[in-house]
Amino acid sequence: MALAYIGLGSNLDDPLAQVMRAIDELSALPQTQLAQCSAIYSSKPIGPEQPDFINAVALLDTHLAPLVLLDALQAIEQAHQRVRIQHWGPRTLDLDLLLYGDQVIATERLTVPHPYLTQRGFVLYPLADITPDLQLPDGSRLPDWLHQCPPDGLVKLPSASEC
């Protein structure tokens, strides 16, 4: 089995409900167990003007190969009516394969670690909720990246603190 970290985000059509439903759907994936979830966060959007996002990270223990897992994530997005019209635009649900074990993957369809992993507070801080001293495949450590990425506009939601 491999440990896979999944980033979740939504800013349309009741974003908190979208993220919580997606977590339930992740836990139902075949050959996969939901091991842990981060707190739920609200974050300011990157890119065009749009509503704030709801974000979280889920840790999966899975037998699914990376591309099979990617297909499953995209199927969940489609079930949530995800439409890819505008780069960094609003969305009902965004599921990103952030890390897959200690693998480095660079294909046309998939890049792991996620290319913006170390630049996004809405990914780094939820990751730290799950694995505070996480070591990335390149040997760098999550605490070092957290110091370089302030939590600007990132708010941990107390009413939905654990997904």
Descriptive keywords:
single chain, 163 residues, Alpha-Beta Plaits, six-stranded antiparallel β-sheet, two-stranded antiparallel ribbon, 4 helices, EC 2.7.6.3, folate biosynthesis, transferase, ATP binding
How would you explain this protein's 3D organization?
GO terms for molecular function: 2-amino-4-hydroxy-6-hydroxymethyldihydropteridine diphosphokinase activity; ATP binding; kinase activity. The protein is built from four helices and eight strands. The relative contact order is 0.23. The model has no long low-confidence stretch (mean pLDDT 92). With 163 residues, it is an alpha+beta fold. It has one domain (2-157): 7,8-Dihydro-6-hydroxymethylpterin-pyrophosphokinase HPPK (Alpha-Beta Plaits, 2-Layer Sandwich). It is globular, with a radius of gyration of 15 Å.
Largest sheet properties: 6 strands, antiparallel
- Spell out the helices and strands N to C: EHEEEHEEEHHE
The radius of gyration is: 15 Å
Shape estimate: globular
Distance between the termini: 22 Å
As for the CATH topology, it is Alpha-Beta Plaits
Q: Under the CATH scheme, which class?
A: Alpha Beta
Subunit organisation of the chains? single chain
Sequence stretches where pLDDT stays below 50 over 5 or more residues = none
Strands, total number: 8
Given helix and strand content, the structural type is alpha+beta
Number of discrete helical segments: 4
Percent helix range: 25-40%
